Amino acid sequence: MVAVAEDKAVELSGVGKHYGRTRALEDVSFDIARGQFFALLGPNGAGKTTLLHILCSILQPDTGSVRIDGFDLRENPRRARSRLGMVFQEPSLDDRLTVHENLDFHGLVYGVPRRLRRSRIAHLLEVVELADRRDTPVRALSSGMKRRLEIARALIHDSTILLLDEPTVGLDVQAREGIWRHVEAMRAERDLTVIVTTHYVEEVESCDRVCIIDQGRVVALDSPGALKAAHGKEIIRFLPRDEASGRAVLEHYPEVASRRGQFIVVEVAGAGFVDDFLARFGNRARELAFESMSLEEVFLAVTGRELRDRLADPREQTRSFGKRGGEHTR
Amino acid sequence: MTRRGDREATGRLALAWAGGVYAIWLREVKRATRDRGQLIGGISRPLLWVLILGIGLNPYFRGEVYGEVRFVMPYTYLQFIFPAVVALNIMYTSIQSAVSLIWDREFGFLREVLVSPMPRGLVLLGKVLGGATVAMFHGCLVLVLARFADVSIAPADIGRGLLLMALLALSLTSLGIVIANRVRSFEGFGVFSNAVILPLYFLSSSIFPIDPALTRAQAQVIYPEWLVFLVQANPITYAVDALRGTFIGFNQFDPGLGPLILAAMGALFFTIALHDFRRA
Question: Which of A61, A149, B13, B58 can bridge B77 by disulfide, Cβ–Cβ 3.0-4.6 Å?
Fold first, then answer.
């Protein structure tokens, strides 16, 4: 019994949250095993961030319970919180303090003893390649550097679970790749469970488990491979040799074939389909490729949408005020 | 054995928490020293009020009784306004530091503190102490101008004055946090300056004496009742009065009332802030 509990980094059961009449989360229940790389995937406004905020206890759920490392968030919040390292969607660093001052502040607040604090800060700055920026004010850092700094900060105390809320939003490709490389480096050297929310599908291809959330409900939860097998279909990408061949394919498979640019995409429907296709049209192709569906398509198949627009809430109004260069904000 | 272990664990925890309060306090102080805008405000405000308004109105601070010109009070206007400017500088800085909480809570540093194991009450304590320290510093900037205002403070009174200033800074920072907790979106500090600080300041008998029984000349000038009521209901009135009693030896109200109301104000606002903070 105890052994089972110890394997789980996070246990959610029946978690629900409403904002007024709007449902943010409903009856969310799942476990995350220790050491896993767990991704929460969903359209904007699906409830990913709400779920993460419940995990880090900034929000209280209306219903259900959350256990972190076996500690109930409501009954033993201090223990539970000490296991979490949180990286918020918007940078929560102090712009006016230096890199080192920000990290030292975090260590003090989490009660890390001075000597340990010093050695961990030095080490983590090496890992995220910011050691030479130790005394730079944070406002002089690029957004990629700030993210790396925040990840380092989340690991200064004895955190075993790293929560990352959209860590790569707004970063260029190179910086995004850097973030994942550094997270992997951290995972290699300590026993770390990583929970990440994102809407970049390609970033979750390599994770252990994907949880797809839509309108506050878990709609799919499995490994990326299993999700693709369950929801994805194989497709044939066919570049016709001439216009007549293209038309012939579309006419022969009216239900599963469709034009996509200069290609024709045919969904594989059942065993023997590929052989049949090749026998008929194999000699009329200029290019031919077999592909399994990406998670992107799984995601579309499961949720049926990509984005959902919503009105700006007071929080976003404040943010846009700050972006306009508002006084006394930072 | 276990008891000793328990005691050690409690000791470690207390040390860790003290470290956390210190970190939040230190952050507040560091931020203030690196914010040039705030510093400029803290210096220019007393200069404007004391050197320009104070000197400019100095000759008019007197009444005419039966054709005989005499001063209304045994003090110049500069001396009269000086303790109030100390209070004004403390008000600005305290409230400014407190309302930075609105931004901090949604996007800034505070979020990261709120997910830490540190108890919320101690987070608040660090924040209030930090804000009050910076406000005290800005209050002391005004004291530097004492010579120009012809105010000489006896060394013995300095301690008492600083204590009153600290009480005022603590209660106003707490008040600022109470307000910040009730505001969801931040649209600039000007709102707080115009809606909170200036009304409290002007209604605190800071720039004009209110007690009609003070002199006959003033007794003839009857203030409208609503104004007198608002001034008497404003707790800042008694804070300014206490500072005035200390720095220039002039009280419009019972001298014991000021410190009492200041202490009560501090306790009340801190308690409300604590209550809000635990819930938020």
Answer: B58
